[in-house]
Amino acid sequence: MDLSKSCINCGGNNYKVCSRYMTKNNGIRELYKCNDCKCYYSETANTFMHKIRTPMSKIAMVLNARTEGMSFNATCRVHSISSHTLQSWEERFGSLKEVLMAYTLSHTFLEMIIEGDELYTKIGKNKPAHDSKGWTVMLMDRASRFILELSCGEKQESLFMEAMQVLVDVIKSTDDLSLLTDGERRYSKYLFQICYDLIHNGGKGRSKKVLQENVRVRVKNKGSQAHKPGPKKQKYQAPKPEHPNTKQTLEDSDIHANHVEAQNSAMRRKNSAYRRKTNTYAKLKTALQRTLDVYWVIHNFIRKHFTTKETPAVKIGVMDSSLRIEDLIMNLRLVF
User: What ranges do the domains of the chain cover?
Assistant: First the structure.
């Protein structure tokens, strides 16, 4: 049985084909009947294509164009679709992120090196950077280029805590994890608040708080240059105490966030909302997050990375082969 055709009511796989019908643009589709709960449902029920008559090939072309740098209004003009249609497609496709992330976290990873960095753009009006809601936190696995977190908001505690909560979920599925950042200490601060162990040594006083075993955090101090006045800072630093049983296998030369910095540069090319000196920026935070969710799905599961020559989901071991946009919008079931 195909799990993508399971009953939308009870989730069972005891179904049968009761009829077939011809669509205008997408060929023959089937109607199913669940033998357990007697529910009737269509082949596209609770999928992206539910009640959509547009050819899947056109939808795939539009979404691909949006993640290759074409702005929202330009996409509507070139492909002759309304703004409400494009917004609806992006919202539906971006909602696949939650299901795909849950599927990713169901796997166990032996070792991961995560690079963290921030990306900035304006939203609505050209406000000062510290007042903008366009700050974007990205957490990316170095080896596979798999993006674990891509969320935007004001550069405040809530944004970093949300990212660290995702990282904690990743830690639960990983035997050995390292987090590397370029100067931003809030990553370690908020991770330490929600992911720590207590060392009981039998002595008086409070037990010492340390990061969980096999979890490392390293910060490359941007203020460690020799030409600056005052005492020279240590160039590479572990900002929070680590578990005594954690293996110290990180070399100083490996403590950098160069790969995620390169991904940030690619984001400015492939997402028009991050383009500098143009008016293609997002007008609302929800609109910016919608484009990030679409980019997350296509980057991780559909598009091959030019360096690894593989889809990040394949490289990290979550999937055996890359997917097509048509595979996701037709077969992955969601509740809208």
Answer: 1-45, 109-276
